[in-house]
């Protein structure tokens, strides 16, 4: 896909296609490794921790401290074997998430989105997929949840450049799930009371495979 020929997009971290969406499928291993090797893995916050249940603050400073946060998020995501991680999942109430996620065709996507907003799709473009969903902050629990099988997110990259990201299938679910996190919603908040109770039961009955922050 062709890179858009504008100064603004040339200043961005990732190239864009001819529709202005980031090309996040190139050099995935190299980019993820570079971030992860600079980072320190942190334990995952779990449901009940207040930082997960309120809207995060916008990212306005993209300096060194923020760059280290992103590196730590990639390291934490890898430790937990996740495909997406929001900052509040490691206890930081900032609007940023990272992802390392395949779509339904098996194509790998790696990137960073700050201050994301989901684009409202017209009804004729919304097809629901009711696959199982899980969350690192609700460890070992899964439940079917209907979400659109295509999504678009606008926001900024890790340097503050405006970006657009789109995904299909599993990756579309990831973009919606991580954006939800930054506005204080977990996927279990979208379940029925019975399904939510069952997810919490699953979590209580099993041990997470990665370090978590215990809720006092």
Radius of gyration: 17 Å
What is the typical, i.e. mean, pLDDT? 93
* Element pattern in H and E: HHEHEEEEEEEEEHHE
Helix fraction?
25-40%
The count of DSSP E runs of length 2 or more, i.e. the number of strands, is 11
Low-confidence blocks of residues = 1-10
Strand order of the largest sheet: 2-3-4-9-10
Distance between the ends: 50 Å
**What fraction strand?**
25-35%
Taken from the alpha-carbon principal axes, the silhouette is: globular
Count of alpha/pi helices: 5
Largest beta-sheet details: 5 strands, antiparallel
- Class from secondary-structure proportions: alpha+beta
Salient structural properties:
216 residues, alpha+beta, two-stranded parallel sheet, 5 helices, 25% strand, globular, peptide deformylase activity, Peptide deformylase, Peptide_deformylase, EC 3.5.1.88, metal-binding
Quick recap of the structure?
With 216 residues, the protein is of the alpha+beta class. The chain has helices at 7-10, 28-38, 64-79, 169-182, 193-205; strands spanning 44-45, 84-86, 96-102, 108-118, 128-129, 132-135, 138-144, 147-148, 150-156, 162-168, 212-213.
């Amino acid at each position: 896909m062709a890179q858009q020929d504008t100064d603004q997009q040339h200043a961005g971290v990732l190239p864009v296609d001819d529709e202005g969406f980031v090309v996040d499928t190139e050099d995935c291993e190299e980019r993820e490794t570079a971030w992860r090797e600079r980072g320190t893995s942190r334990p995952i916050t779990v449901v009940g921790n207040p930082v997960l249940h309120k809207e995060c603050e916008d990212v306005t400073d993209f300096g060194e401290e923020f760059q280290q946060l992103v590196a730590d998020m990639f390291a934490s995501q890898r430790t937990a074997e996740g495909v997406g991680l929001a900052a509040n999942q490691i206890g930081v109430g900032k609007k940023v998430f990272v992802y390392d996620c395949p779509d339904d065709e098996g194509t790998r996507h790696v990137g960073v989105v700050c201050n994301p907003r989901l684009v409202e799709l017209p009804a004729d473009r919304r097809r629901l997929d009711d696959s199982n969903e899980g969350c690192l902050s609700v460890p070992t629990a899964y439940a079917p949840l209907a979400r659109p099988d295509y999504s678009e997110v606008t926001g900024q990259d890790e340097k503050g450049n405006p970006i657009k990201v789109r995904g299909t299938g599993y990756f579309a679910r990831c973009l919606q799930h991580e954006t939800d996190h930054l506005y204080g919603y977990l996927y279990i908040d979208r379940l029925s009371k019975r399904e939510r109770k069952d997810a919490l039961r699953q979590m209580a009955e099993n041990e997470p495979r990665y370090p978590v922050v215990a809720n006092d």
